[in-house]
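Batch manifest, entry 17 of 40.
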Amino acid sequence: MDIGVFLPNYGPMATPDFIVDVARQAEELGYRYAAVCDHLFMDAKNAKAMSNVGTVDARTPNGDRPNWYDALTTLAYVAGITKKIRLITNIYVLPLRHPLSVAREVTTIDVLSKGRVALGVGVGWYNDEFVAAGVAFDSRGEITDESIRVMKEVWTKERPSFNGEYTKFRNIEFYPKTVQKPHPPIYIGGYITDGRQHFGVSTGKRPPALVRAARLGDGWIPCGANVDEVRRGAVMLHDLTREAGGNPREKKIICHNMVSIGKTLGEAKRVAKTSMEERFGSAEAGVERAIVGTPDDAIKRFEDYVEAGASAFIIGFFTPTPREVLSNMKRFSKEILPSLS
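Output type: C-alpha cells
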C-alpha cells in the first residue's frame, strides 16, 4: 500500500524551509508521495478550514495568514531536492488554467524528475477564484474534461491537433514528451456528496467526479471520505468504467485523510476534535472522516479503507507545530507504515 504526505505549500505552516524539511524526511522515511494542494488565492477563513498540515493556532509560523505557494512550482522545486518520492497535486484546479500551459509545466517536472509526477485534478469549488480569473464557474466541468483531452493529445501525439470549444490548435510541435508513458497519471478529485467540505447528501449513481474518472482519469481521489463513501464510490467507479469500455482494475483510488495518533483512543480523538472545531466550528462530522486512535486502531482503519477499495493514501497530521508534524511522520513510519507495506 502506498502512503504519502502533504507538503506545507499552503496554510499557517507554509514556509520554504518547512516544505524542504517535510519533503526530505518523507523520502527518507519511505513515504511514497509528496502532495501539494492548489488555489490561486484563498481567504483566511477557508484557508484555515482546508489546512492539511497541522492545526491552526498561535504557535504556527504564519499565524492565520493564508500563505499559498504555487503547486506545480513547489513540485518542481521538490523534484530537485529528492530522488525517488513521487510528486502529486491533490488537487489542482485545472479549469482555471490554459491546458497547454499545464501540459508544459507537468512535462517539465516529469522529465526533470525522471518520471515521478502525477496530476490530481478537480473542477474547483471556490467561486471567487473563477470570478477573478474570468472563467465561467458553471462551465468548469466541461472545461476540465476538454483540458484533460488537450493534455493527452500533446503528450501522446507527434503532431497534435485539437478543435475544441475552448482550445484549438493544428499540427503543433510539443516536445519533449513525458518520461512516463503514455503520460503521467491523471487522478480525478471529487466527492460523492453535495455539501461544502465533503458534508452533504448523495448525488445519486453518477457523481460527475466519478464519471470523469471513469472516462478520462487513471483513478479517483476522494477527499476526506469515510469508509462507506469510499466503498460506494468504488462500486460506482467500477460500474462507470465498465460502461465506458475500460478495465476497473486499472483505476486507482487514492484516499485523502487527516490522521491523529495517540497513546490512547481518547487522546487521539481530543487532538482531532480540537483541530476540527478550530477549522470548521464543529467536530461532529469531521472526526469520523479522519483516521484516529492508537497505532493498532489506525492500522485497522486503514485496512477498512483498503477493503472498501482504497489502494493508496495521502495523509496530513493534526498537530499544532512543525516540530510535531515531523515527529508524527517519524512515529507513523515506525509504528504503522511497516504494517501497511
